[in-house]
Amino acid sequence: MSRAIGSEAWAVDGLSTLMTWLTAEGNYEKDVGGEGNKGETKTRINSEIQQLIFAENPATTRNAHDVGVKIADIESKFRQMADCFAQTGQGLNDEGDFTVLSDWVSRTFPYY
Description:
Shape: globular
Oligomer: single chain
């Protein structure tokens, strides 16, 4: 199996588990070193997530490094999408092009 970080490869190999973990209250802050992270390292946290993925799909080829790379990819795309929205302003919605924008967002960043 490919170790690609694309959403297609991850869709069958743990993306749902990863997103569930990241969006659970307090987990993202723990990953980025927020308050109360108790010295947990990214490596240990990525390993914890990888174990959750493995429990859900024992045939997975994902390892802790792959999890860290995917989290960085998701963060990067999220920042890109947030920057894009900051630049579009209200005018795009006023012109009735929201459906086009929504479709573009779904294709470009399916996690948004």
